[in-house]
What we know:
The protein is of the alpha/beta class.
Amino acid sequence: MNMDELLQQSQQLQEQLIAWRRDFHQHPETAYEELRTAAAVEQHLRGLGLEVTAGIGRTGVVALLRGEEPGPTIGLRADMDALPIQDQKTADYASRTPGKAHLCGHDAHTSMLMGAAKLLTEYGKPKRGNIKFIFQPAEEGYAGAKAMMDDGVLDNPKVDVMVGLHVYPGLPTGAIGGNKGVAFASADPIEIEIIGSGGHAARPHEGIDAIAAAAQVVTALQNVTSRMVDPLEPAVVTIGTIHGGDMATAIASSVRMTGTVRTLSPQVRKQMPTLIERAVKGASQTLGADYKFSYEASYPPVMNDEKMVDFVMETSEKLFGKSVWTPLKPSTGGEDFAFYSEAVPSVFFRLGVNAGEERTSYPLHHPMFDLDEKAMPHGVALLSSIALAYLELT
């Protein structure tokens, strides 16, 4: 494998990568609605002559580059879904769909994996083993990875290791980063209903104010992480939505809140339902309100295999001729790549997309999020070199 040639070929894909990414960016599709995106991906993969299967995990697409001889299989994954957030950019490639936008970089992930499929196909069949290209739907809260696994994405042929990347504005363009062990937190949704009793706003003592009780609950939840969990164990409880009340002159009879709980430790994760319900119960009952509480164990933590991290670090240094790896702390963000990492040795790393200007400095999920498109050939080269090096070494 000629690393210099691989890098040059990736750079030559720059214009095509930008065209793909901007097309996806203008036409964002949220979880399990990625029909247009999946169709474009499928057409591209079939044009390369790959073995393609569509409809995996509802709207996912999988392609296989089969080697000349049997051997291990490496999976490369990109997520395709957008976010239900209004794009506030003024760029000519801004989202054309109201209330939906690619503000987490999945358009770039999809484009980079399409580029890697093109480059690796042109490189020729591996002498031994296989490369599986996995284009996944519904990462943003709807467990598209699990849906694809339930449909057998890790089988036929069996995937031995998984690799994924995520664009990251916290690193300069072309840098990569990550860590060994727990890389991303578990992300579990919670729902709380505070049940009071309505009445006239002028006579609050005759009712039970669900909004006042909800305010107490939100405050009490902050004590879960600051006073009920080991301070050396990261944990985050966030209430993201609050809905209650019908008019300004009435006591609200109920309030519904939703949020997420994020932990890096499996032990702390097990404790959180009990600790949170204790806080909700105490704060509600102080004002005489009742409550309903639900906690769903959703995305587990992403676990980076130590050997796979070392392998990515070594491969990237050979590719770029220098170390581009930046050690990063574990993220309290959630990522459904976690389901793959539970099943097979995996590595999930971050690719820098910050050009050092305001446009590319906004955080993920921000309405103004954008990225330096010059980073995309780096992603193509990394994914391609990792796949080829793995098959050559195993």
